[in-house]
Amino acid sequence: MKHFDRLLKMYELAPIHEFYKGIHMELADKKASITLPVDKRYFHAGMSAHGSVYFKLLDDAAYFACQTVVEDYFIVTTSFSINLLRPITSGIIKAEGELDFMSKQMFTASSKLFDEKGRLVGTGQGSFLKSALPIQHVEGYS
Predict the structure, then answer these.
(1) N or C end: fewer C-beta atoms under 10 angstroms in the chain?
(2) What's the whole-number average pLDDT of the chain?
(3) Closest residue by Cα to residue 53 from 32, 84, 30
(4) Residue 110 falls within a domain, yes or no?
(5) Is residue 142 part of a domain?
(6) pLDDT tens digits, residue range 24-74?
(7) Domain containing 84 — which CATH number?
(8) Whether the predicted model's global pTM rises above the 0.85 cut
């Protein structure tokens, strides 16, 4: 099984996705794309998506853009900043992440989140490091 296929399986099997029903990821070299159907379970009292939903998709897209080039160790997010630009109330949202910088141990990536009309609703920028955990030991990767 190829690295990208293993990453997709690992992502799909993550326990958090029992909550985020219908989440779907696609990978390319140094890029990741994630879609999620909006569900009212993700809303705050103002009846639009909670910032945690923006973070989840923006971080995941940036993270996996980096993990596409790291085949030996599981990487971890060390910092992540987001900008919430528009409320999300319905449809299918899409995050796109891209690797910006890499060294032996450190990676940075940026991501953008779009609503179903293609409007930019959020942006993110993260830093990631290789952990001591070999990726072959991560549940779902093998």
Answers:
(1) N
(2) 97
(3) 84
(4) yes
(5) no
(6) 999 999 999 999 999 999 999 999 999 999 999 999 999 999 999 999 999
(7) 3.10.129.10
(8) yes
C-alpha 36/C-alpha 43 separation (Å) is: 14
- Is 125 a member of any domain? yes
Block residue for tokens 């940075």: 108
Structural domain tally of the chain?
Answer: 1
Q: What is the per-residue pLDDT across 15-34, written as a single tens digit (0 to 9) for each?
A: 999 999 999 999 999 999 99
pLDDT at 132: 97
Contact, 19 vs 50, CB < 8 A?
Answer: no
Fill in the amino acid letter for 23: I
Q: Tokens standing for 39?
A: 């569900």
Q: What percent of the chain has pLDDT over 90?
A: 99
SS3 for the chain is: CCHHHHHHHHHHHCHHHHCCCCCEEEEECCEEEEEEECCHHHECCCCCECHHHHHHHHHHHHHHHHHCCCCCEEEEEEEEEEEECCCCCCCEEEEEEEEEEECCCEEEEEEEEECCCCCEEEEEEEEEEEEEEEHHHCCCCC
**Domain span at residue 68?**
3-137
In a domain, 20, yes or no: yes
